[in-house]
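Sharing in case it's useful to others searching the archive later.

Someone asked me privately for the predicted structure of Alpha-N-acetylglucosaminidase, so I'm posting the question and my answer publicly. Question first, with the sequence:
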Amino acid sequence: MEAATVAAVLGFLLLAAAGRSAGDEAREAAAVRALVARLLGPGPAAAFSVSVERALAPESGLDTYRLSGGGAGARVRVLGSTGVAAAAGLHRYLRDFCGCHVAWSGSQLRLPEPLPACTSHASTRRYRYYQNVCTHSYSFVWWDWARWERELDWMALNGINLALAWSGQEAIWQRVYLALGLTQSEIDEYFTGPAFLAWGRMGNLHTWGGPLPRSWHLKQLYLQHRILDRMRSFGMIPVLPAFAGHVPKALTRVFPQVNVTQLGSWGHFNCSYSCSFLLAPEDPLFPIIGSLFLRELTKEFGTDHIYGADTFNEMQPPSSEPSYLAAATASVYQAMITVDPDAVWLLQGWLFQHQPEFWGPAQVTAVLGAVPRGRLLVLDLFAESQPVYIRTASFHGQPFIWCMLHNFGGNHGLFGALEAVNRGPAAARLFPNSTMAGTGMAPEGIGQNEMVYALMAELGWRKDPVADLEAWVSSSAARRYGVTHKDTEAAWRLLLRSVYNCSGEACSGHNRSPLVRRPSLQMATAVWYNRSDVFEAWRLLLTAAPTLAASPSFRYDLLDVTRQAAQELVSLYYEEARAAYLNKELVPLLRAAGRLVYELLPALDKVLASDRRFLLGSWLEQARAAAVSEAEARFYEQNSRYQLTLWGPEGNILDYANKQLAGLVADYYAPRWGLFMEMLVESLAQGIPFQQHQFDKNAFQLEQAFVFSTQRYPSQPQGDTVDLAKKLFLKYYPRLVAGSL
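And my answer, the predicted structure tokens:
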């Protein structure tokens, strides 16, 4: 593609940012000043002067910030071309000049006195995108406004200027479906429960975990208004949902002649909960429903002209004919521009990566070519591992955002491909005729591996990769803890070369450790790193504990590495138990089983219980707090328990969203492991083959009992993280060194 054409395509996308008037400058500056006060407190915030001036950007559409002042009692001046740019500049000052740190788990904000003098300037044309459709279910689902406010502050500080805003859409759909003639009971039957709405929105599921209470719709409408107001006050561009073509089965009752196709099943669900109905692109109802929804949505929430829709997410289209795929794509876009002539469609590019055998060159070209160039913005969702832009000639001229997906299911587990993340965006920009329009973070779940997201956010403002990742993680650790320490630096260098050094297409941030899986004799335990690096990093962090124990971020990291070490130990004990069983050695089997089930797992649960961020009670309490009655609280809690474990009524996507939480380890993983070891011992003692099928049936009874349980769990931490981590270390590390667990 000619360079001029590429520039024109990217230029169209900049219209959304350029269209913000100078009259918004004061509002955006006020929003950032309020952020500074929330972050630092009113006193320290007075030392900062924040202004927003569109003219600061050398070109229309650029995001630019400039830092100056400070030193000898002078105020630090933060100037941005948008509110987001000013917030990103503030974060840059706190990080690089003051040695501070802002993260999901907490912040380290000890400001030096006087504030350091500074001169810094940065510009970027690129979008900085955030979220995955799944994040709304795996992480955001039970949030109240207070938690959303903290997240929006984090987004602004990290320079995010494009993000999904999908709360409350079911309330809008309810209005549309009622207007079309569906009954309230038909609508209630269609919507999934709160913990599974992401997959209802993408057409993968319906009904499962529902219905949605009336109070849910009211709360989500309220939240969406507050979220949008805050996003717009920062100068962020919210991405609203649009009609993708999926409809309730009940539509066929109201319109018997409607042309719909029932798609195949998804995620091992039967058609009671999947096999969604897809409206034919040529059916007259398609533009009617699409425009009804978008008109009602924008009447309620306004618009910033970018909309998300995913018609074939992890679902094979009914035809591979390019003409059909082009028509299906065009019909979605036409419904958008009928209501909003300036509409731009944000498409998750996951479908091309997830089913490459279906999405050949002709099929991909049909979809990408069905929307005018510059009106389709594609998220290359898993670009750090399996970039699609390379095999599609930069998405055939459509602009795309290079995204780091990183996490699946919101799992705990130290993981990262930092080298690929570091090099990937620059490589995409240099790709021949690249139409890369920005960088993004698109995890399925958040609240883990914070170092990875700190790097990705920083890359959104860099033209080149970080030159020395070892030095970068060392300085990042110093900012996290508020002090430089040789042992923590050494620990992070070990983690960088091990758990954060995954490479190749096999890399996936989905924790498949035996700890969090239903046991069998066929489980894989191989990892891409040397486990001894994790154990040594564990030792080094504990060595630093007497100096750093007062740092909340240090305590969080110590617990997370201790949790990872315990996860590695589970794999090693499993290997011992399996080898003993296969060698018909009863005593070694009993020894390994006893140590795993009765010593290691209870000790892990106890360590996790020392931090509120690793409590099942906190997780479930979020769900209960969203309710307006006890019955509703029980319903939300069961939704949450299902998502963490069985995921479906029959374990359809079993343990996909696994977490390592105090209470979940003790009452879900440990009993399952105990049952497995008990049946292995019985099998060996009686000289009969292990019956995996029977174990699976028995395990399902345990798993289901956990989901239906009403046991309440502590939502406040118990015990001291450092002491408990040290006890675990002193018990197991000498055995590791001696080579005999």
